[in-house]
Amino acid sequence: MDTLTQSTRPQRLLGAVQKNATRGQPHSVLKAIDQFCTHTEWAMNVGDEKGCILDSVVSEVNPATVLELGTYCGYSTVRIASLLPPHAKLITLEFNPDFAAIARQVIAWAGLEDKVQLVEGASGDWIPKMKEQFGITTFDFVFLDHWKDRYLPDTKLMEECGLLRKGTVLLADNVICPGTPDYLEYIRNSPRYKSQYFKSHLEYTKVEDGLEKSVFQG
Questions:
Q1: Which of 51, 130, 129, 145 is nearest to 94 (CA)?
Q2: Is 145 designated active site?
Q3: Does residue 205 have a pLDDT over 90?
Q4: Annotated catalytic residue, options 34, 154, 203, 212
Q5: pTM of the model
Q6: What is d(CA 195, CA 15) in angstroms, rounded to the nearest whole number?
Q7: Which GO MF terms are attached to this record (predicted)?
Q8: Which of these is catalytic: 34, 94, 140, 145?
Q9: Which residue in 60, 97, 118, 204 is a FRET match for 72, CA 20 to 30 A apart?
Q10: What are the pLDDT digits (tens) for 88-147?
Q11: Is 73 in contact with 94 (CB distance < 8 Å)?
């Protein structure tokens, strides 16, 4: 919270989008956020460097059904949604209602609200309801970018709920910084997954971080 302006960082990020991005142009929204985070204030988006890895995986999978765990301000939601084929469904979960309110405006500014269903609440509560509430059979692609201690339990919960099919791709952010050691140990040693690590850097810094891509084997 900035005591002078009485605004939060997400609100200032939204202001940068509204000032510098063109409505209906996802690329300009991403550029405005990247510039804000590089030159004004750091924020926990996936960022431009890791965002390129995310883009390449989404393009490779070409998913019809996507689950994003952790919306924050909607940056990665915009990256993913802008690459989806027509009629694809992206469900993004955000626990913090203040973040969700900002994300809705960022997604709408990018012109992608028709492709995105933003759901507020805890992942552990919503994952078991996915099939019933949203008519999802399985997800083609899952992006994990929420609380790091929820990566492993939520992955196991998705397995138990039958939301993963043979070939479903999981992509997990921040597996090095701040790190998800229990998730990595599980996903790399389980015969149910084939995993690959993409070395990169923590968003907008030189600190090592990376993404773990894991393909569910059934």
A1: 145
A2: yes
A3: no
A4: 203
A5: 0.94
A6: 38
A7: catechol O-methyltransferase activity
A8: 145
A9: 60
A10: 999 999 999 999 999 999 999 999 999 999 999 999 999 999 999 999 999 999 999 999
A11: no
